[in-house]
């Protein structure tokens, strides 16, 4: 009889331990869900900022075209390509990664590495760093 009581007590302890683990896992799942929602909101906000920046770039390009500043317009086009590439790299979850870094991106000619392209790569590195901090 004492064997069955010990066995019963052992089962009760196991059930209690499983209940605690279950509670812990539920809390962790809820925390992860909240964190995911926060990240989705931040991503949405970042998309809006990128759209706004692209709109500003397009507006500035129109002003420059009308004033004949075509070399600056070429730099803006390169910057816009960098922003588009960055957007596609960071926010296209279903696009398979090609394994190329931003320096190998087919966004433009090699001459755009020193100028707006460098700004795009710096922005990309900063976003990667922020992503790692999260």
Automatic annotation (TrEMBL):
<protein>
    <submittedName>
        <fullName>APCL protein</fullName>
    </submittedName>
</protein>
<dbReference type="GO" id="GO:0007389">
    <property type="term" value="P:pattern specification process"/>
</dbReference>
<dbReference type="GO" id="GO:0007026">
    <property type="term" value="P:negative regulation of microtubule depolymerization"/>
</dbReference>
<dbReference type="GO" id="GO:0001708">
    <property type="term" value="P:cell fate specification"/>
</dbReference>
<dbReference type="InterPro" id="IPR032038">
    <property type="entry name" value="APC_N"/>
</dbReference>
<dbReference type="GO" id="GO:0016342">
    <property type="term" value="C:catenin complex"/>
</dbReference>
<dbReference type="GO" id="GO:0090090">
    <property type="term" value="P:negative regulation of canonical Wnt signaling pathway"/>
</dbReference>
<dbReference type="InterPro" id="IPR026818">
    <property type="entry name" value="Apc_fam"/>
</dbReference>
<dbReference type="GO" id="GO:0045295">
    <property type="term" value="F:gamma-catenin binding"/>
</dbReference>
<dbReference type="GO" id="GO:0005881">
    <property type="term" value="C:cytoplasmic microtubule"/>
</dbReference>
<dbReference type="GO" id="GO:0008013">
    <property type="term" value="F:beta-catenin binding"/>
</dbReference>
<feature type="region of interest" description="Disordered">
    <location>
        <begin position="24"/>
        <end position="43"/>
    </location>
</feature>
<dbReference type="GO" id="GO:0008017">
    <property type="term" value="F:microtubule binding"/>
</dbReference>
<dbReference type="InterPro" id="IPR036149">
    <property type="entry name" value="APC_N_sf"/>
</dbReference>
<dbReference type="GO" id="GO:0016477">
    <property type="term" value="P:cell migration"/>
</dbReference>
<feature type="region of interest" description="Disordered">
    <location>
        <begin position="92"/>
        <end position="121"/>
    </location>
</feature>
<feature type="domain" description="Adenomatous polyposis coli N-terminal dimerisation">
    <location>
        <begin position="6"/>
        <end position="57"/>
    </location>
</feature>
<dbReference type="GO" id="GO:0007399">
    <property type="term" value="P:nervous system development"/>
</dbReference>
<dbReference type="GO" id="GO:0030877">
    <property type="term" value="C:beta-catenin destruction complex"/>
</dbReference>
<dbReference type="Pfam" id="PF16689">
    <property type="entry name" value="APC_N_CC"/>
</dbReference>
């Amino acid at each position: 009889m004492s064997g069955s009581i010990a066995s019963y007590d052992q089962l009760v302890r196991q059930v209690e331990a499983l209940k605690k683990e279950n509670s812990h896992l539920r809390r962790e799942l809820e925390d992860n869900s909240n964190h995911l929602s926060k990240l989705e909101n931040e991503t949405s906000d970042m998309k809006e900022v990128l759209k706004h920046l692209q709109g500003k770039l397009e507006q500035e390009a129109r002003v420059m075209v009308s004033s004949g500043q075509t070399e600056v317009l070429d730099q803006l086009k390169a910057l816009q390509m960098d922003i588009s590439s960055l957007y596609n790299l960071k926010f296209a979850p279903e696009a398979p990664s090609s394994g190329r870094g931003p320096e190998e991106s087919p966004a433009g000619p090699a001459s755009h590495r020193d100028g707006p392209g460098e700004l795009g790569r710096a922005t990309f590195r900063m976003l990667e760093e922020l992503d790692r901090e999260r």
